[in-house]
Each structure stands twice: as structure tokens, then as C-alpha cells.
Amino acid sequence: MSVVFVAASKLPTPFAEFTMHGFLDEATGKEHVVLSLGDVGDGQPVLGRVHSECLTGDALFSLRCDCGFQLEAALRAIADEGRGVLLYLRQEGRGIGLLNKIRAYELQDGGADTVEANERLGFPADMREYGICLPMLAHLGIRELKLMTNNPRKVKALEGFGIPVTERKPLKTGLNPHNRKYLATKAGKLGHMLGSLHQDEVEQP
Ligand SMILES: Nc1nc2c(ncn2[C@@H]2O[C@H](COP(=O)(O)OP(=O)(O)OP(=O)(O)O)[C@@H](O)[C@H]2O)c(=O)[nH]1
Ligand SMILES: [Zn+2]
Fold first, then answer.
1. Residue whose CA is closest, atom 9 of ligand 1?
2. Per-residue pLDDT band at 172 (split at 50, 70, 90)
3. Contact of 78 with 37, CB cutoff 8 Å
4. Is residue 66 annotated as a catalytic residue, yes or no?
5. Rounded to two decimals, what is the model's pTM?
6. Cα 151 vs. chain centroid, distance in angstroms?
7. Residues lining ligand 1, Cβ inside 6 A
8. Tens digit of pLDDT for each residue in 46-77?
9. ipTM score for this prediction
10. How crowded is the C-beta side of 139, counted as CA atoms within 13 Å?
């Protein structure tokens, strides 16, 4: 596997003081980050979030999606549990990159939905690759995840790479008038389990 550990440091945040682990994917040059809290290498399932980069939602307060809200909710949940892990994967725009995502948003401003926009640009709806999680989790001694996600394809993909997901924890947050259509498309075309937004129940995968 081409993902190698580079360095670790403390990362104090408003939620907790995490340990930040930096990794380099030597095949793509992408730099990934994992935040961990507590003893995650004890062999017990770990509360986890596998979050793909969304510059607009995570850093620029965009209301077009739910990413920033999910990121914050996940970090808060890990802090509340006192133990957990967040993998921040540099797969912007479901893998098409930031500038192509802006192109896709332009098409969405003209009426296309998030899937149609990707397809019009010649991309599949979702180009992400989750195999890169494996060496990062192995480095931290994590064998099983209690995964915070609404995306059943993410659960399937991780399990396909040999990472058991013992529990799926919904992460329904951030619904607003600007992302209502986007979230409806995710549920309708991408299979996201968003049945009742703003509900925080625990479901089996
Ligand atoms: N191509 C494209 N990517 C988008 C759009 N809106 C958000 N994204 C990207 O979608 C990704 C969202 O990733 P995640 O937060 O892991 O979420 P998810 O796979 O939708 O599922 P959850 O785990 O339920 O949040 C990020 O990479 C965003 O940049 C869009 O309209 N078009
Ligand atoms: Zn987003």
C-alpha cells in the first residue's frame, strides 16, 4: 500500500485535544489526516467518521451541503465518548477535485442535480476510493469501526476492504433550504439513509 505515516502532533480544538496523524499517499501525492482521541488501539470497536474533504462545507461555511455540520457533529460525538477517530480524506468533490466541483455547482445552479452534474462533466457520480483507509487504521491498531454515516455504500466499501463496521450511527444534521434538494438527491439516487433528518437514532448496518 502506498500510504505511509509521516508525523503526529497534538491538535487542540474546541471539542477535545486530539492527536493528529499525517499520512502521505505516495501514489497520488495526497496528504491525509487522521484525528484520534483516547486509546483506539485496544482491539475494541472504535467510534469513527470517514469524512471526504469538502473545502466549501468544511471551511467556508457553505450551506449547499451538510459536510461542515457532519464534521462538527462527528468531532463532538468522539469528544463526548472520549475515544474515537476521524479520517479526513482528501477526496474533494467525491473525488473529482475542487475546480470540477465548482463546475458541477455551476451546472446545478442551472437546474441539474448533483448526480446529473457529475455525469455531464464526464465523471461517475462518486469516484471515491476507501482502500486508503486501511493502512491508516492499521497504523493506529484499529480493527473495527462504529461508523458515523448515512451512506450505505461507504459501509459496504469499508467492509469490502476488510474493515468490519459493527454499527452504523446516522449523522443527520445541517438540513437547510439550500441543501434540501441536494440531500433529497443523495437519498433518491445515491441510496443515503436520510429518511428522517434531524434524528439521531442508532441503527445496525
Ligand atoms: N461532485 C460533487 N461533490 C460534492 C457535492 N456536494 C458535496 N460533495 C462532496 O461530497 C463529499 C461528501 O463526503 P462525505 O462527507 O464523506 O459524505 P457522504 O459520502 O455523502 O456520506 P455521509 O457519510 O453520510 O456524510 C465531499 O467530498 C464533498 O466535497 C456536489 O454537489 N458534487
Ligand atoms: Zn460538502
1. 93
2. confident
3. yes
4. no
5. 0.92
6. 9
7. 51-54, 65, 67, 70, 91-94, 96, 101, 104, 114, 118, 149-151, 154, 171, 192
8. 999 999 999 999 999 999 999 999 999 999 99
9. 0.94
10. 23
